[in-house]
Amino acid sequence: MATMRWLWRQLTSMRIALILLFLLALASIPGSIFPQRGTSPLRVNEFLKDNPTTGPILDRFYMFDVFASPWFASIYLLLFISLTGCVLPRAVDHYKELRSQPPAAPRNLSRLPVHLQWQSNSTAEQVVSETAAAWKKRGWRVRQGDEWLSAEKGYARETGNLLFHLSLLVLLVAVGYGGAVGYRGTVIVREDAGFANNVTQYDTFAPGRLFGADDLPPFSFELKDFEATFQRGGQQNGAPRAFRADVIVKDDPKSQPRPVTIEVNYPLRTSGITVYLVGHGFAPEFTVRDAAGKVVWEDAAVFLPQDSAFTSSGVVKVPDTVPQIGLQGFFLPTVTDDFSMGPKSVFPAADNPEVYLSAWQGDLGLDSGMPQSVYRIDTENMERIGIEELAPGETWNLPNSAGTVEFTGYRQWASFVITKDPGKGWALGAAIASIVGLSLSLLIPRRRAWLRVTASEDEGNLIEVAGLSKTEAPGLADEISQLARLVNAPEEKL
Amino acid sequence: MTVNETLAQASNAMVYGSMTAFTGAMVAFSVSLAKGRRIETIEVSAQRTSASHQVRKGSTATLDEPSVSTSVSDGVDLGEGRRAGNIGMSLTWLGTLLLGAAIVFRGLSAGRVPIGNMYEFSLAAGFAVSLTYCSMSISRDLRWLGLFISIPVLLDLGLALTVLYTESAQLVPALNSYWLAIHVSAAVVCIGAFTMGAALSGLYLVAQAAEDRVAAGKEPGRSSAFAQRIPSADRLDLMSYRIHAFMFPIWTFAVIAGAIWAEAAWGRYWGWDPKETWAFITWVIYAAYLHARATAGWRGKKAAYVAIAGYATILFNYFVVNIFVQGLHSYSGL
Ligand code: HEM
After folding, report:
1. Which residues fall within 8 angstroms of residue A102, CB to CB, at 6 or more apart?
2. Buried-most residue among A158, A182, A374, A436 (CB within 10 A)?
3. Which residues contact A135 (CB under 8 A, 6 or more apart)?
């Protein structure tokens, strides 16, 4: 029991809080050095591949999941236990203090750091009662004795401090709650195509631990038009300047469709979820016909950008011909004649688009039961039958009379992140409260002021006014002068 | 909208002008420091025990002596160095105004807020440092501090022009938000003030070391000769604390504004992006500084080291994370 109490006292001491703060800072550092699964899973895989010996060891110590690791959690949980243990008793004390009176005036005021004195003819009773009223009016809490006054101000310092520490606790809970009941998904939508909010439509979907699939509000949207503009000329030639996605939204199946523009920094918010525009690219349109001229594939294929000039790569899989056909290649929004570096676009906008394709014939391996990437062809059981460069409208007669490929044009696609985080309003509230609390606690000094009236041998009374602050109080002297003025101190004494 | 090249070039010229002024200021301030000395000799500061309700020497003003207000030169008498100090001060003002104008012209040239890449942040941070210093020097004599302000400003501007320079241009879409002005200017102001806080904490350590030597009855060393030219350790510690205490809520605000922006731009308000992580580390370390100053056994030198460590994390975030670490904050323009 005694050891428990000792442990508790240690844990809630400022010294331990200080050490835990340092540990928290230290523990965050690896999270910024090593790639993290939460934000960049691909780079984690790359790191593991490049460092086959150290990688797994680092992984064992959660170096790729620092902020979700047990040791990071134990530091901040200890810190918050310490904080609670420290703040709760202080809140009780503060509450009592708020309801009690300031302590009586000390005997000898002249020893205090700010001290003023002068002679007066008024009676002690008169001075004390008038001063009490005047100081109260200025917001001081006043306790009255026969020949003295005690006054105190700046309780908001402690109130603010408690508010600040408390709001940190609320913030932590809000972050945890939002993460547990919310979700985050990503989806690529082509122009003239739509998205309906259900799990199967997402490309990636990361639900919180307490998330249920019926928590998805039934909204849908259609991407009508995507527009990207880029810097032309100058040092930053090709740098993006504006992205906008014009969508038609239905907030729920029964509501009227409404047009909305989603831009970077201006997401769509509807029924508790938020839709962010995060990326874009091109989807070249092809019509593939078999040897008999029958259309076997007709669509826009999403190609993924490989560089800042949007050299994009992708595939088309045509399963319904015998043997099967696969197209693999690049979409170049702006081509040049220079192919020395391979097919590369030189500008991100579709000024002079072309596709550069290779055609494969054989077995796509779609029936093997193994999940396949929609952006890659497994060419193990296929044979390359030719390569070709096509401008929009051009048709390629495949070798071996395998059919034709017409490059009919292109559409753009936009990628969206869709999130639900019911904790974020709370987190924001707590964050704002924390700033308010901090400002009060750091900028308002707690200070005391006293008045004492002493009968002196010669005529009248000696009046003393004094002040003290436990913390740095830059304006204390001036403030005490002001208080003295309210007791009719002669100007030359101020 | 295209970029107005004339205005952009005028801005560059003003940056060079500003650097010239700060170079002059640096020289003048060194001369002035070499000649100045403190009025009182070094003595051991009053015991600091906040438990016994004693107020520090520095923060105490008795009414019998109303002159202990802000007009006094923190106990430093520049003596023969006064003239050089005045020249340094005027040049600092000139450099600050030129830098401010350079920033305004840069903004006008592209028709947007001029804090869109590392070159522009660096100009703004240099301006924040020198403006903090100039505005604080209005009500008190801070000529003794001038050298330690002009050097970081010069380093910052030099780096901006040589390594970080980027042509004036429009913003990338990710930065096209009013939160840019709110979040970045709050951060830049904090960086400026924390630079001054770190300089004061560093000077405090020098002064404290000198006072410790005197207290131990040792020969005053070379650092003591320097310590005679700056205010007392207590005074420096207090000034540093005031800056940090004033700026900490603003830093908190800058981080929270960043989180609100991230919520609108990236779909989450906090994602442990490297830049966010280091902003958090900075925040935690400055919180530790404030706690250290309220913890027995940590007050004084240890707290000052913590404040300097906090500043080191700011520099790390700016130079290392911005340039070398992959993250979402890809706005360095390099
Ligand atoms: C997440 C952890 C914490 C953070 C970020 C934090 C932050 C802060 C900040 C910024 C201040 C204002 C400093 C000031 O008033 O001078 C403060 C004050 C204070 N904190 Fe904390 N704190 C934390 C945990 C704790 C814990 C665990 C304790 C108790 C052991 C504690 C006790 C105090 C006290 C007593 C003050 C007032 C100090 C003073 O008046 O200077 N804090 N805290």
Report:
1. A141, A142, A143, A150, A151, A152, A448
2. A182
3. A142, A149, A151, A449, A483, A486
The whole-number pLDDT of residue B56 equals 33
Q: Please compute the mean of the pLDDT values over residues A57-68 and round it to a whole number.
A: 92
Chain A touched by B16 (CB under 8 Å): no
Judged by CB atoms closer than 8 Å, whether chains meet at A18 and B271 is answered as no
Q: What is the pLDDT of residue A460?
A: 80
Q: Which residues of B touch A31 (CB under 8 A)?
A: 272, 277
Residues paired with A455 in a beta bridge:
A461
Mutate to test the interface with B, among A19, A308, A472 (most CBs of B within 10 A): A472
The per-residue pLDDT for range B185-229, each reduced to its tens digit, is 999 999 999 999 999 999 999 999 988 888 888 877 777 777 888
Low-confidence ranges of chain B (pLDDT < 70): 1, 37-75, 77-78, 326-334
DSSP annotation string for B86-141: HHHHHHHHHHHHHHHHHHHHHHHHHTS-S-SSHHHHHHHHHHHHHHHHHHHHHHS-
Please tell me if the CB atom of residue A434 comes closer than 6 angstroms to any atom of ligand 1: no
Chain B nearest C-alpha distance from A456 (Å): 21
Cβ neighbours around A138 below 10 Å, total: 14
| pLDDT score at B44 | 47
To test the ligand 1 pocket, which listed residue (B280, B291, B298) has its Cβ within 8 A of the most ligand atoms?
B291
Query: Which pLDDT score is estimated for A436?
Result: 97
pLDDT mean over A45-61: 92
Q: Which two tokens stand for residue A166?
A: 């408390």
Residue with tokens 């009053």: B46
Asked whether the beta carbons of residue B242 and residue A242 sit closer than 8 angstroms, the reply is: no
Please state, in angstroms and rounded to a whole number, the distance separating the CA atoms of residues A65 and A36: 6
Q: Are A170 and A433 in contact (CB under 8 A)?
A: yes
The atom of ligand 1 lying closest to the CA of A21 is 2
B10 touches chain A (CB under 8 A): no
What is the three-class DSSP state of A334? Answer: strand
A369 touches chain B (CB under 8 A): no
- Nearest chain B residue to A473 by CA: give it: B59
Could you tell me which residues are beta bridge partners of residue B325? none
Place A370 in a pLDDT band, splitting at 50, 70 and 90: confident
DSSP helix/strand/coil, A176: helix
Q: Collect contacts of B279-282 with beta carbons under 8 A, ≥24 apart.
A: B279/B254, B279/B255, B279/B317, B280/A25, B280/A28, B280/B255, B281/A25, B281/A28, B281/A29, B281/B313, B281/B317, B282/B251, B282/B310, B282/B313, B282/B314, B282/B317
Tens of pLDDT along A150-208? Answer: 999 999 999 999 999 999 999 999 999 998 999 999 999 999 999 999 888 999 898 88
Q: Which residue has the higher pLDDT, A342 or A198?
A: A198
Alpha helices per DSSP H over chain B: 5-35, 82-110, 118-139, 146-162, 178-179, 185-215, 222-227, 233-266, 274-292, 301-315, 322-324
Residue B96 carries which side chain, given as an amino acid letter? T
**A83 CA to centre of ligand 1 in angstroms:** 8
Predicted confidence (pLDDT) per residue in B64-77, tens digit: 222 233 333 466 76
- What are the two backbone dihedrals, phi and then psi, of residue A409, each rounded to the nearest 5 degrees? 155, -160
Which helix (H) or strand (E) segment holds residue A139: the answer is none
Contact present, A117 and A111 (Cβ < 8 Å): no
To test the pocket of ligand 1, the residue of B290, B298, B306 to mutate (highest count of ligand atoms within 8 Å of its CB) is B290
Per-residue model confidence as pLDDT tens digits over A246-264: 999 999 889 999 999 999 9
In this complex, is the C-beta atom of B264 within 8 Å of any C-beta atom belonging to chain A? Answer: yes
Q: What is the DSSP letter of A216?
A: S
Which residues in chain A touch residue B313, judged by CB atoms under 8 angstroms apart?
Answer: 25
